Amino acid sequence: MAKYQNLLVAIDPNQDDQPALRRAVYLVQRNGGRITAFLSIYDFSYEMTTLLSPNERTSMRQGVISQRSAWIKEQCRYYLEAGVPIDIKVVWHNRPFEAIIQEVISGKYDLLLKMAHQHDRLESVIFTPTDWHLLRKCPCPVWMVKDQPWPQHGTALVAVNLSSEEPYHDPLNIKLVKESLELAEHVDHTSLHLVGAYPVTPINIAIELPDFDPSIYNDAIRGQHLLAMKALRQKFGMKEECTHVEKGLPEEVIPDVADHLNAGVVVLGTLGRTGISAAFIGNTAEHVIDHLKCDLLAIKPDGFQSPVELDDDDEHDDE
């Protein structure tokens, strides 16, 4: 499969163990392609050293970049010796998410992988501000990796929106399923399941309309979602037992089904809303993400344009 051949791994500078790098190697060994291990670093104290000339400050920055590059190479040593193609790139940039997205755009990467930190007590995943920026603004798919091995006989769970309230839902559903099927086929023949959630009866309707029958309403909504799921699975020749349509909020249904299936990754679409739209409308994907205990693969719809642009000048050193 040629879909994910050019992989960018965002290195975590605060630990020697790199789960995202391991997951990228796992994919490349089964799927082909190459990896770039990327790190954005910045130390404000270097910019405040007024006793040094600009050339001396540049030299100091390059020294730090060289040290971090050597450290990453040591992290990659075992994989490099095993013949895994890995490039190393370190840049000086004060906003990590911008540096990562600019690298994604300039390097035309197919997939970004980054570690997601784990909350030990709940086993849930914690996302940093940088993670949220990447999930909202990165133009390529973002794979947030939890620090755990791929589960034996694990599944990939694709969360689809069956309401069809907006015109972009259907093509995004098709894109999610298509890319996930291709990936699952090449990664140890991972089984693929689809999940959709439908809403419960609004309480205010039942109260305000005495003749309203909640059971009829629920049956009608469920029927619409089952028909939409049937049409989607038949488009890809999937079996009925690999689809799940459950009543409830997506942020409750999707993590529950993922736990039940021992999913290694949940695949979902994210529209990348930012600013006022995100604040008032909210991203369904982000509510779901907060409750997941496994890896996440977030995919944007076709035609998505990142709000992050490449720098016009060459102010950022790199190696």
Automatic annotation (TrEMBL):
It comes from the Bacteria. Residues 4-146, 176-300 form the UspA domain. Belongs to the universal stress protein A family. Required for resistance to DNA-damaging agents. One of its GO terms (cellular component) is cytoplasm. InterPro entries: UspA (IPR006016). It is found in: Cytoplasm. Keywords: Cytoplasm. The keyword NAD does not apply. CDD domains: USP-E_repeat1, USP-E_repeat2. The keyword Cytoplasm applies. It holds the Pfam family Usp. Its main location: cytoplasm. This is Universal stress protein E.
